[in-house]
Specification:
Helix content is 25%, strand content 25%. The strands form three sheets. The chain has a seven-stranded parallel β-sheet with strand order 5-9-4-1-2-3-10, with helices on both faces. Strands 12-11-13-14-15 form a five-stranded parallel β-sheet. Strands 6-7-8 form a three-stranded antiparallel β-sheet, with no helix packed on it. Helix 3 crosses helix 4 and helix 5 runs parallel beside helix 9. It contains nine helices and 15 strands. By secondary structure, it is α/β, with parallel strands linked by helices. It has two domains: 167 residues, 3-Layer(aba) Sandwich (Rossmann fold); 113 residues, TPP-binding domain (Rossmann fold, 3-Layer(aba) Sandwich), CATH 3.40.50.1220. It starts with a strand and ends with a helix.
């Protein structure tokens, strides 16, 4: 039996959908016994959500006011205290996981397998390199705890029909006091979350200004879609950086991705390679985005997008 400890991602109140995708990856490990650890100020409700995920055998819930904000410096020692009982310690390859898991690996003195996109065997995993232009197989030596982050865009979420037991976890590891959570400031939106949206509309530098990005907002509202942007659009100040899609932004896998005025730089394509259907609108017929698009439309976005938006009425 391969014991897997999956660190749940959450916002303090609700379980992040990426956790369900990580369970799918963990379940691909031969003879996996999957346990989910929830570290939160108030872990009860989040743990109950995790217990519903199929393939989860047990949920460990740890409550502590110090966990507010899910700081890596605070959580890492707690995870290390648990790790001795597990063969694998996994987390999503999101901002949360990328911040947390390197600390865990360093404290355990082992290497980390980043961006796991496929489980080949108990000790072999595939991961992308060179901005996704190549895939390598990584083998971890026997007897070493596997510390990894999971490329959630490569997996579908498991169903939520389980009823795994939830156990309270009384952590004995000392909580560091050199780092503490002060506050978090995030943009509020009624639109679907970019990371988990089934449909995403994204704009690029060709829009020319923050005001012109209104074209993207209007189309996204008609489609009930999340909104993304290329790095060039973010760097130009059209939109905030939490909307960036790509290797240095969000890696997403929506059912539908509409790229408007985006040329298709390799770092952007890395973030959308797992999308179901890619639609590209660009006036440059030689734009690299058309090489990966399922549907391409060569035209001026300032004419095409308003027409498309009106047609959806």
């Amino acid at each position: 039996m391969a014991k897997v400890l999956l660190i749940a991602e959450h916002d303090g109140e609700n379980l992040n959908p990426n956790t369900a995708k990580c369970v799918t990856c963990a379940a691909a490990i031969p003879a996996a016994e999957i346990e989910v650890a929830v570290f939160a100020e108030f872990a009860g409700g989040i743990a109950s959500e995790a217990a519903k995920l199929d393939s989860v055998s047990r949920v460990l819930a740890s409550d502590n006011a110090a966990y507010r904000g899910t700081l890596a410096a605070v959580l890492a020692p707690q995870i290390v205290a648990l790790a001795a009982d597990y063969d694998y310690v996994l987390s999503p390859s999101t901002t949360f996981g990328k911040d947390l898991m390197p600390r865990v690996a360093a404290l355990l003195g082992v290497n980390q397998v980043s961006d796991i996109m496929s489980v080949e065997s108990e000790r072999k995993f595939k991961r992308p390199i060179y901005a996704g232009s190549a895939v390598v197989t990584v083998e971890v030596p026997a007897g070493v705890t596997v510390i990894g982050t999971i490329r959630t865009a490569s997996y579908r979420a498991v169903d939520a029909g389980n009823s795994a037991p939830v156990e309270s976890l009384d952590m004995s590891a000392e909580v560091p006091d050199h780092t503490r959570f002060i506050a978090s400031e995030t943009g509020k939106s009624d639109r679907p979350d970019l990371q988990s949206a089934a449909r995403v509309v994204a704009g690029g530098r060709a829009l020319g200004s923050a005001e012109n990005f209104d074209l993207i907002y209007k189309l996204a509202d008609k489609l009930d879609a999340g909104i993304g942007a290329s790095r060039a659009a973010v760097d130009a100040g059209y939109v905030p950086n939490e909307m960036q899609v790509g290797q240095t932004g969000r890696i997403i896998a929506p059912d539908l991705y509409i790229a408007i005025g985006i040329s298709g730089a390799i770092q952007h394509l890395t973030g959308i390679k797992d999308a179901g259907t890619i639609v590209a609108i660009n006036k440059d017929e030689e734009a690299p985005i058309f090489e990966v698009a399922d549907i391409g439309l060569v035209g001026d976005l300032f004419n095409v997008v308003p027409e498309l938006t009106d047609a959806l009425d």
